[in-house]
Specification:
heterodimer, A: alpha+beta, B: mainly alpha, Serine Threonine Protein Phosphatase 5, Tetratricopeptide repeat, two-stranded antiparallel ribbon, 3 strands, globular
């Protein structure tokens, strides 16, 4: 089943955004 | 969000194709503080340098999440500035989600974006006319009212 390919590292997310010329959608969530 | 929006096929496709999806616990001491996260979920659009361009919060149903992200993408692109991409994002909100609560704001922002690009006041007049005709109850009509005075 398809799912969102979440990145869980802030640094990796920003690096990917720069590499792919995309914006970041950041979801600050409550794991509990 | 996990139970509804994030399992929706349209949301999955949009998010994976359009943005870099980053998920962080709000309790993260460094990043929670840096972005002043006080509510969960807090949803942000950031650029590659980590600069925040859009913020919203709450549990979005799938049919409202995509237009919200598009509006945020448009605002981020406007700021960067990539006004063509900004206009395209605002236009998608209007064209694909015309009944969403964010559509009137997108009409306003698209009109202003086009004005800034062209310096043609007709875009400002047109945005007012469109808001008044299609979203007469929206507070964005009031905010656009000065543009109606530009009519000759």
């Amino acid at each position: 089943m398809a799912q969102i390919n979440w990145i869980t590292s802030y640094e990796d997310g920003l690096a990917m955004a720069k590499a792919e010329d995309k914006l970041v959608f950041a979801d600050f969530f409550n794991p509990g | 969000m996990d139970a509804v929006a994030y399992i929706d096929p349209a949301v999955i496709s949009f998010v994976n194709d359009t943005v870099v999806p980053l998920r962080l616990p709000a309790s993260d001491k460094v990043l929670g503080s840096r972005y002043k996260v006080k509510w969960t979920p807090t949803l942000l659009i950031l650029d590659g340098d980590g600069t925040e361009h859009y913020r919203t919060l709450g549990f979005y149903p799938p049919q409202q999440l995509i237009p919200s992200l598009l509006l945020g993408i448009g605002k981020a692109k406007f700021n960067l500035p990539d006004r063509v991409a900004a206009g395209a994002a605002f236009a998608r909100v209007i064209d694909e989600y015309p009944h969403d609560s964010l559509a009137p704001e997108a009409v306003y922002l698209l009109g202003v974006t086009r004005y800034i690009e062209s310096h043609e006041v007709t875009h400002l007049i047109a945005l007012y006319d469109r808001l008044a005709a299609e979203y007469p109850e929206s507070p964005w009509v009031t905010r656009a009212t000065p543009y109606s005075l530009l009519k000759k």
